[in-house]
Write a structure and sequence with these properties.
The protein is mainly α. The chain has 6 helices and 3 strands, in the order H-H-H-H-H-H-E-E-E. The protein has helices at about 5-60, 65-80, 90-100, 110-140, 145, 170-175, and strands spanning about 185, 195-200, 205-215. Strand 2 and strand 3 form a beta hairpin. Helix 1 (about 5-60) packs antiparallel against helix 2 (about 65-80) and helix 2 (about 65-80) packs antiparallel against helix 3 (about 90-100).
């Protein structure tokens, strides 16, 4: 039989305790990292839905414009919606520029409100997604996470950076009280990272669907 001294038993006990503490921290960190990745995935889905809706609104606006302007705006919307991962940001920026070049005061009031609402949804979704990306990248950048490879094989999430139009209506329209559209939106996030969103679709094209946050007039 082995005769273990009190010092040896103490050392073994400390080692076991240290291993258990590291294992517990690793489990908690991995679980938190998993929830952050879920948050990134959900926020990206919401962003994709907001961008898709903006493209749909742009095509609706294009239908009211002169032929050449309408074709250019419709083409910009199609290119943005069908762009690959690497080209998505510049294509969305070109769509933003195309929308910004429209004389929006000549549009029907309903379309003006739709353009502003679509821009606002994109702004909110993009900021929420970039916040999720920031938190995830910050945690994955810690030495403890890198040393233990707690990030696994999941790709590092990327920021989505495009020009922020912010859904601002022209001053001439805001000055008229009867044309104002007062509304509010909220982003509801559960403790596990789940986000409450609603699915919508175009009445004329049920296959065209998007997700948006809760809110309304």
């Amino acid at each position: 039989m082995l005769n273990l001294t009190a010092t040896t038993v103490l050392v073994i006990g400390l080692i076991v305790m240290a291993v258990l503490i590291v294992a517990a921290l690793a489990y908690q960190t991995a679980h938190r990292l998993d929830r952050l990745h879920v948050r990134v995935d959900l926020s990206l889905q919401a962003l994709e839905a907001a961008l898709a809706r903006r493209s749909a609104v742009a095509r609706a606006v294009a239908a009211t414009l002169p032929a050449d302007e309408g074709r250019a705006l419709r083409a910009a919307a199609d290119r943005a919606e069908n762009a690959g991962v690497e080209d998505r940001e510049p294509m969305e920026n070109r769509l933003s520029a195309a929308i910004g070049a429209i004389d929006i005061e000549k549009l029907p009031r309903s379309l003006v409100a739709e353009v502003a609402d679509a821009d606002t949804r994109v702004t909110m979704a993009r900021r929420f997604h970039n916040d999720a990306v920031r938190d995830t990248r910050a945690l994955r950048g810690r030495r403890f996470v890198r040393w233990l490879h707690l990030g696994g094989t999941a790709p590092m999430p990327r920021y989505f950076d495009i020009v922020d139009r912010g859904g601002i209506l022209p001053a001439a329209l805001l000055a008229r009280a009867d044309d104002r559209r007062v509304s509010a939106r909220v982003i509801l996030v559960a403790p596990d990272g789940a986000v409450l969103v609603v699915q919508g679709h175009e009445p004329r094209n049920p296959d065209s669907r998007w997700w948006f946050t809760v809110g309304g007039e």
